[in-house]
Amino acid sequence: MSRVLGVDLGERRIGLATSDPTRTVAGPHSVLTRSGDPERDRRAIVAVARDEAVTTIVVGLPLTLSGGRGAAARGAEAEVAALAALAPDLEIVLWDERMTTSIAERTLLEGDVRRSARKQVIDKVAAAVLLQGWLDAHRT
Fold it and tell me: Could you write out the three-class secondary structure of the chain?
C-alpha cells in the first residue's frame, strides 16, 4: 500500500494531512498559506505529495448540508481537474468534507487547545478528519 494526502481547501489556507503507509490512520501534516497564485498553490500541494511519496490525493468537497453542490463545490471540482493535469500520475479524488472543520474544532476544544493555537492548526486537523473518513470508507 501507499500513503494518501488529504487536502482541505480554504480561501486563505490549505490544510494537509497524510496517512500511514497501511492507509489506516490519518494525521495532520501542514498548512499552506494561499499565495494568491492558484497554480503556485497547486504546485505546492503536488510537491508535498511527492515528498511524502503518496499515490492518492483526497480533496475535500464542500457540499451544502443538504448535499447540494454550490460555488465552493464547483471550485473544488475545478481544483481537482487542475491538480490532475499537473500530476497525471497521481489519483486525485473528491470526498465529502461536510462538518470536518466543526469536528476538528470540537476535537481541539476538548483537548483544551487555546484559541490562538487552534487557528494555527485547525486546517490541518480538518484535513486529517477528512482523510480519516476517506480511509475508513475505503478500508479493504
Answer: CCEEEEEEECCCEEEEEEECCCCCCEEEEEEEECCCCHHHHHHHHHHHHHHCCEEEEEEEECCCCCCCCCHHHHHHHHHHHHHHHHCCCCEEEEEECCCHHHHHHHHHHHCCCCHHHHHHHHHHHHHHHHHHHHHHHCCC
CATH no. for 3-137: 3.30.420.140
What was the pLDDT predicted at 65?
73
CA distance 118 to 104: 9
Please give the distance of CA 91 from its chain centroid, rounded to a whole number.
14
Q: Which residue has the cell 497524510?
A: 18
At which residue does the C-alpha cell 481544483 appear? 79
| Residue bearing cell 471540482 | 77
Whether the predicted model's global pTM rises above the 0.85 cut: yes
Better pLDDT: 97 or 92:
92
Would you list the domain boundaries of the chain?
3-137
